[in-house]
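Technical appendix A lists one of the benchmark inputs used to test multi-chain prediction within the project. The record comprises two sequence entries:
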Amino acid sequence: MRRIGALIWKDLTVEFRGREFVGAMAVFALITIVTLNFAFDLSGEQKEASGAGGLWIAFLFAAMLGLGRSLAIERERGTLEALTLCPIDGGVIFAGKLISNVLFIAVVQAISLPVFAALYDLPALSPMVLAIAIAGSLGIAGLGTLFSALVSTTRAREILMPLLLFPLAIPVVIATVQATTLELQGNSGDAWPWFNLIVVFDVIFVTMSYLLFDVVLED
Amino acid sequence: MPTSPEAAARGAMSDRMDLAGRLFAASSVIVLTAGIFMAFVYAPADRVQGDAQRILYVHAPMAWLAYMSAAFLFVGSVGYLWKRSATMDRLARSSAELGLLFTSLTLLTGSIWGRPIWGAWWEWDARLTTTLILWFIYLGYYMIRAYAGDRERGARHAAVLGIVGMVDVPIIHMSVTWWRSLHPEPVVINMAGPNLPNSMLATLLVCFIGFMLLFGHLIIQRMQIESVKDMLEDRELSSLLRGETVSGQPRSRPDALAPDSSSLIEGA
């Protein structure tokens, strides 16, 4: 547990000094939200549904941007080698990376949710929407951290990352968009089953990625 | 060529595979010929759908094989990570390729049928959506292999995706079903289901068996080709290591192979 904490602390320190991830991800999420305004009608009767969809497209894209580099940057700097030389197993590295990725995405969400709420005049700042956002990013980051390690060795990682992450993350995307839509429509009761479903997907994806992470780290 | 016991055992093994492959090929030709006859002549035209329904005899087996390839891919991937055996990796590689082929054919034949019956090439039905996502996963599997560079790393990474993807497919299907069930769509015409007339059922069964035999033939064929490819690559590597040039011989030509492996090529 302390080792995981040390890894997360390291990632946060690096991010605080270099500001490579969160800034870029947040700006990207914001620009996506603004651009979607021109693609969908976000003022009509169905704006809760299209708003929730747009919000999650922005989150997914921003998450992908950060996740794609998460392990590649360690490999480029040679720090991944140092990490694997440490007397800790791959599971600890996975947990540390996963949690710092979720934290980065959470910061991005914390920045973009108020903007989204203001621009589209939707009640996006309720505790339930925040809970959905965190649960959804855990599932996406669970798969994403595994794929991040997987594509970090390849040449075409910017292409491979979405190609792997998008189709496999579909269950989380469906559940989060449904839950967010229902919540924005003020229908919290119906949002709960979808939220529980996100948690189930989180458990499956995180467990699976945790078990397979060692295999990917072998090189 | 080495005549070690292992090499001899491998030779006997590939001879048996070869025989099995030929048997599958011959029997699938016979059964599928009967299947084509039954599908076009013996089975009656559907009362509602007319002749368009006959595509079922191809479409349903294709879909079945697409999902069977997924099961094979999963077994091959788990087997490779567990035992690190090249055969398991070849099984995974071959089933991913067949999976890509059969999901494509499933989607195509389904669209062709959907156009006259549903009036649309595509519906966001749970089964269609899952098959489309499966197609993307097979494609991702291919890209991972292509970009990995190193053979061992490609096999390992692809195996990880094989496992994650195949565990994910049922989850995707469930989530898409729930997603659709909350948004009622115009009623999608159900394939007749179990209450098919006997003649149609028999035709479907014959086509299923025929295509399964064809699948058996294809996967053996594919694995043998992969095995020869690996052998060639190893040979080129080891001759490079010995400092010999391979310039006199064109790369990857069958005549560059030793006699004992040329039998594999003939079967291909």
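Chain A has a mean pLDDT of 88. Residues 90-120 of chain A form the longest helix (31 residues). Comparable benchmark entries are summarised in Table A2.
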